[in-house]
Design brief:
Helix content is 73%, strand content 0%. By secondary structure, it is mainly α. Helix 6 packs across helix 7. The termini are far apart.
C-alpha cells in the first residue's frame, strides 16, 4: 500500500511539472487534462483521479509556481543581512531567473496578470493568482522597510511607492528578457535598479 501511495505521489508530481511547463509557455488557459495525459502517456482518467478537474489542475500549477518562486527568489535572499543587501539579493535572483531558458525563466505572476486581467474579481483562479502576487509584493515591502530600519534608505520614503516601482521594473525585465530577448537585459536591469535605489538612499 505504501509503495502504491508513493507511486501515486510521484505521478501527481509529474503531472504538475508537465502542466507547469505548459502554462509557463502557453498560459494557464492552455491547460487540459487530455494534453497532460498525452504528454505523460497516461489515460485521462488516470490524470483526473490524481488531480481532479481542469480548474484543480490550474490551481495546483499556481501553487507549485508559488513554491518555486519563493525557493528561487525569496529564500536565497534571506541568507543575506537585513536591509539593502537582502533587497539587492532579491534583484540579482530575479535577473538570474529571467535569463533561464523556456519554462524555468517564465513568471506566471507577470503573464497571468495579463491573462486574467478581465476576469471577474471573484474568479477563483484570479483570486489565487492575486494572492500570490500580493505575497510577492508583501515580501518586497518587508525588505524595503527593513532597509529603512537599517538606515540604508530614507526614513520618509513611501514604501508602497518603491514596491510599485520595483514591481514595474521586474515586469519590464520579463518582457525584455523573454519577448525582446535583449542580451544585455541583466546589465540594463541592474543599472536601472541601482539608479532607482540611489534616489532613496539614506
Amino acid at each position: 500500500m505504501e509503495a502504491k501511495t508513493e507511486r501515486s505521489e510521484l505521478t501527481q508530481s509529474a503531472i504538475v511539472d508537465v502542466a507547469l511547463e505548459m502554462a509557463a509557455l502557453d498560459g494557464l488557459e492552455s491547460l487540459s487534462i487530455g494534453e497532460v495525459a498525452k504528454r505523460l502517456n497516461l489515460s485521462k482518467s488516470g490524470v483526473f483521479s490524481r488531480i481532479g478537474s481542469r480548474e484543480a489542475l490550474q490551481r495546483a500549477v499556481l501553487d507549485e509556481f508559488d513554491k518555486r518562486f519563493q525557493q528561487d527568489i525569496l529564500m536565497p535572499a534571506l541568507r543575506e543581512p537585513r536591509g539593502l543587501p537582502r533587497l539587492d539579493a532579491i534583484m540579482r535572483a530575479w535577473l538570474q531567473r529571467t535569463t533561464l531558458p523556456g519554462a524555468r525563466g517564465a513568471c506566471l505572476y507577470a503573464a497571468g496578470s495579463f491573462e486574467f486581467d478581465d476576469r471577474d474579481e471573484k474568479d477563483p483562479l484570479r483570486e489565487a493568482l492575486m494572492a500570490g502576487i500580493k505575497r510577492w509584493r508583501g515580501a518586497l515591502k518587508r525588505s524595503v522597510l527593513q532597509a529603512v530600519e537599517m538606515g540604508h534608505l530614507q526614513p520618509e520614503l513611501d514604501a508602497e511607492q518603491l514596491v510599485f516601482e520595483l514591481d514595474g521594473l521586474f515586469t519590464a525585465l520579463m518582457r525584455e528578457a523573454r519577448f525582446m530577448r535583449d542580451p544585455q537585459v541583466v546589465e540594463r536591469g541592474w543599472a536601472c535598479y541601482q539608479r532607482l535605489i540611489n534616489t532613496y538612499r539614506g
